[in-house]
Amino acid sequence: MKAERLSKRLDQVAQMITQTSLAPIRLADIGSDHAYLPAYLALQDQIEWAIAGEVAQGPFQSAQATIDSYQLQDKIQARLGDGFEVVQVEDQINLATICGMGGSLIINILEGGHARKVLPDHLVLQANNQVPQLRRYLQGMNYQLIDEALVEEKGQIYQILQAMRQDQVTLLDDRQLLFGPYQLMKQGPIFKRYWFNEQDHRQKVLDQMQGLNKETLSNKDQAKQKQLRQEIEWIEEVLQND
């Protein structure tokens, strides 16, 4: 499989995996999208073995078709199941990827892996939304962020997180949870575009809420307004910091 078969998003995930110090890598790709990622890594001899996990029959068959087409049956096993149900302790998985899902769904999947005691020490995650909540969850589970990336593809900007479980983690403050500690340090052009759009979105939501009758606003709505004002202020500060 050539590199161009991977999307920019998955190519960045692959780069994060190959840059880890793990050897050998035994991968669980949860929600495997035709098994493109594990197939690419296997063909590059970057992993020892992988599970391509799918929750529905159609995607499972697509993953199996990719494995068969590249004759990777000894390197990758497609499994049908919900989240980490496809992983067994004896698989000795040491890295998991979950990409292309909402943040809350990723958290639920990680919770399932934790409950079954099969959650590996290394994670590479790409959430389509609720990324600050995912960062907060990870640090609560003793996973330290070790890298982050932003990838722009077909008009969409995706956030990718790499985390490693540690005995003690450095807790992030609310500002770091929002932007990402590594993104705050990098602040490239994609970062600026992403947060310019996020600022506009938050301002529109706040304007709509401010048009409501203040006497009818619930405590939850008032707290949301306060949060939006704070986040807009932080975004303005970051965007002005050239």
From TrEMBL:
Protein name per Swiss-Prot or TrEMBL: SAM-dependent methyltransferase
Taxonomic source organism: Facklamia languida CCUG 37842
Family annotation (InterPro entries): SAM-dependent_MTases_sf (IPR029063), TrmK (IPR006901)
Pfam families tied to this protein: TrmK (PF04816)
Gene Ontology molecular function, alphabetical: tRNA (adenine(22)-N1)-methyltransferase activity
Superkingdom in the source lineage: Bacteria
Source lineage: Bacteria, Bacillati, Bacillota, Bacilli, Lactobacillales
